[in-house]
Amino acid sequence: MRRPMHRRDVLRMTAVAGAASVLTLEGVSFAHADTEGTDETTRRINGRLPAGAPDYVYVPVEVPAGVREIAVSYTYDKPTVPAGTQGNACDIGIFDERGTDLGGAGFRGWSGGARTEFVVGAEHATPGYLAGPVRPGTWHVVLGPYTVAPQGLAYEVTVTLRHGTAGATPKPVYPPRRARGRGRAWYRGDNHLHSVHSDGKRTPAEIAAAARAAGLDWITTTEHNTTSSHGAWEGLWGDDLLILTGEEVTTRNGHVLALGTDPGTFIDWRYRARDGAFGRFARRIRQTGGLVVPAHPYATCVGCNWKFGYEEADAVEVWNGPWTTDDEMAVAAWDAMLVASRGRAWLPAMGNSDAHREPQVVGLPQTVVLADDLSREALQAGLRAGHSWIAESKAIDLSFTATSERGAHAGIGERLRAGRDAERTAAVAVRLKVTGVTGGTAVFITDQGPLFTTPVPADGRVEWHTSPARSAYVRAEVRHPSGAMAALTNPIWLGQP
User: 33 and 65: one domain?
Assistant: First the structure.
C-alpha cells in the first residue's frame, strides 16, 4: 500500500529526552490466521521521507500469535544529486514487542546499510540479528535515513510473517575471559574488527585465522550496533588467542568502541551529542566490564568525527588502519591533550585495524600491551595505565625507557619521579631500541614538541638526554622514509604531576 508521510506524522516526530529525534509511522496490521507449516503473510509499506528527516523512523508491525519467523526486506531510491551534495543512504534494524526505549530490552538486530533483507526467528537469525521467539505484540522495523537527498528518500519495506510452531533457540556459547598466555608479558591485540555480522565480509573463522597469521594474542569483536557476533566464535579461541566481545557504537556524532564488555551486552547508539545521553552509556560500558574508546576521531565519513568529548574515555584510537592524514590529526590532538593533562588522568593512545574485508589487514596496526596475563582484566589494566605502544605489524618490536642519574627507571606509561629541584634539573637518559624497521627515523616528542630526530641505526638503539625541568614527558615515534608511522609509544612522564 502507498504510504506517504502525512502532517500527522510530522506531529508525531519527537525529541525524546536523551534520544535522537524519531518519527513513528502508522502501524502495519496482520489479520490473525490459523495457519500451519510454511504458510506466510506479507505486507508492503511505501513512503517518502523529506530532506531533514529525523534520525530514526519506526514502522510498527502488529505481530499475532503463532508466528515462527519474521522476514523483512527494503529498498529505497538513489536519485542523482548535485556535486558535493549527499545522496540517499538508509539503514535498517528491528525491535521486538518489548519496545524501542533507549537502552531498553527490545533490541533484536541491526544491519545498518550492509543488507537489504533479514530474518529473525527462534531457531536462527541473519547475522546482525538475535535469534529468539517471535512473540505477539507490536514490533518495530526501524529505518535510519543516514543521509537524504534534496529530492527526498522514497522507500518500500516488505514484512513477511511465517506461521507455524517455533523451534528452540540455541544457547549461545561465549568466549572465555582468559587464555593461557605467557604470564607477565607484552601482548599484541587488534580491538576493532568487523565480520559478516555487520558490514564486514570475513567470517569469524577467517578473522581468527588472520589474527593468528598477524601474530596477535587477542582480538575484540566490535560490530556496528549489534551483539550478534558474541556467540559466533565457538571453536575459534584457544590457548594462543583470546577473543573478547564488544561493539562499535555507531552514532551520528562519532563512533566509540565498547571494548571487552560482558558477552551479550548491548550498548544503544540512538543519540547525538546534543542529547546528553552518552555519559549514561559510557557508564554502562564500564559497568559491564568494558573500556570506552573513541574510534577514528578525525575520520572523514559522515557521522564518524568524534563530537562527545573525552571526559568519559578510557583510551583513544589514534591510529586506524593504514596510516593516513586522519591519523596524523588524531595523534596531534591526542598529544595536545597530554600537555593539557599535566600527567593527571591522561588518556592513553591505542591503534587498531578496523579491518572489514580483503585486502584490509587484520593487525595493521596492533596495540602491544604489558599485562600480568592474557585475560580481559589484565589487558584492560595495561591499556588504562598506558603501558602500551602501537606497531604497524608483528615484525616491529621496541623497548622505550627513561633512567635518572641515580638509577631510577620508568617504562612506557610510567612516571620517573623527581622531587627536589636538583633532581628536576638532573639528566635523564631516554633509550629506544627498535627492530623490524629499515631506513626509518626515530623521533622523541615532549610537551614542547619534537626535540630529537635521528635515523634509526643498524642496531636500532637510540639514546637522548633531557630532564624533568625541560620535558614533562617523552614519547617516541618511529616513521618510515615516506613519513608513515611504523610505531609509536605512550609517554613516559618525568617529574611530579
Answer: yes
